[in-house]
Specification:
The protein is mainly α. The chain is 54% helix and 0% strand. It contains 8 helices and no strands. α1 (10-17) packs parallel to α4 (53-63) and α6 (93-104) packs across α7 (106-116).
Length: 137
């Protein structure tokens, strides 16, 4: 299969994200069912990036382990900032894909996101993650 035709299986990507419990809130503490935002984030994966994407995601998460742990502890479920309903994406498995896309294809992610989802959720996640390129308005 060529990279142009490679498809990403949401279930496989989500299963890969679930391998990093130190970056995720416990299932009972998560705000949404698994995968609700995953399709939007995966649409920001360019065709040439699809082949081998799961391995790329695993490398990304391992490279950013300390940052992800800090983000979950400081902003995830049970944290003081999360008490007000903000930062609801912190701790979700699909957030690992969102953060990877935020670093790799930020404009593609924002374009896909703004078509179907509320911007404040991505803005909050962007604030917590602190990417090099700010996409917030």
């Amino acid at each position: 299969m060529s990279t142009e035709q490679a498809e990403l299986d949401e279930g496989e990507v989500l299963a890969a994200a679930e391998q990093f419990p130190w970056a995720l809130a416990a299932p009972g503490e998560r705000h949404w069912p698994d995968g609700e935002f995953l399709d939007v984030a995966l649409r920001a994966v360019r065709p040439e990036e699809r082949e081998g994407y799961i391995e790329h995601l695993k490398v990304f998460v391992e490279q950013h382990r300390a940052r992800l742990e800090e983000m979950l502890c400081g902003w995830g479920p049970g944290s003081k900032p999360a008490q007000f309903g903000r930062y609801a994406l912190v701790g979700q498995p699909e957030t690992l894909v969102i953060l990877e896309r935020m670093e790799t294809n930020p404009f593609g992610l924002r374009g896909q996101w703004d078509e179907v989802l509320e911007g404040i959720l991505l803005d909050d996640l962007e604030f917590v993650w602190g990417p090099c390129i700010r996409l917030s308005r």
